[in-house]
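I hope you will forgive my troubling you with a question about protein structure. You will find the record immediately after this paragraph.
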Amino acid sequence: GNNEQDANDVVQDLLATAHRRLESLEIKMEEVALGSNDNNGNPMPLLEFGSIAQKVIEGAEAQLENLEKKGQLPVSLRLGLMRQVTSKVQSLYKEQLQALRNYYGQRYEAILDSEGNEGENPQDVEARWAAAAEHMTEGFRAAAKNAVPVTFQDISKSKSYHDFDHVDVLQGLLKDMLEATERRKDEQSLADMALDVEEDDDSSLSRRKFHVPKWLERVAARAFVFGVNYLQGWLAWQGIKRAALERDRQQPKFPLF
């Protein structure tokens, strides 16, 4: 009857409102990404993402609870409607994580490209890069958690917590940083090789033969030179394991990798 029609109108209105508010959140995210020359064209993604998304969720929940109290809405339907709103929030959360991955990855690359202190030896450079990678990993993890709407931060109440999980994207960021580091190592080795050949006054074939294999060995060894020593050791262990432990604590047990 009329009552049902009223409830139906409210539900349609509620979904339209939530959708509109989430669209405006998406536009805000895009504006932040495009609209600023902060950090050499690498602006920080929208900091208020989590709090804006939370308001949308709270608004929809309040309206639905109100209908349920009036007896105009079965519980199962209320949960289904909330799932619709939540799934849109989740897809925006994934976009936010990708934006954070790009942001912290670019910041790390800027540090790789920055001039070090004068007289830095290779160990100092690697230690400085490792510290930067640690800093970016921590920054990403804090920002990823901050982007989760409060409703889904309380594990005891939230069944869909795993849909706000940042571990996979964190692994992507670690991979980006490792690859960027290896690229710099290759460039360095190339530069060294060029210097070796330039400094070689007697550039007879026999002397040059001595240099090139050394360079080839360096390339072959690049994965160990930097990765295992510093970055992989620190990052892969600390970043992924800690995030994985956290996920384990908050969810039923299942194989992670």
Summary: The two ends are 53 Å apart (CA to CA). The CA atoms of residues 238 and 244 lie 10 Å apart.
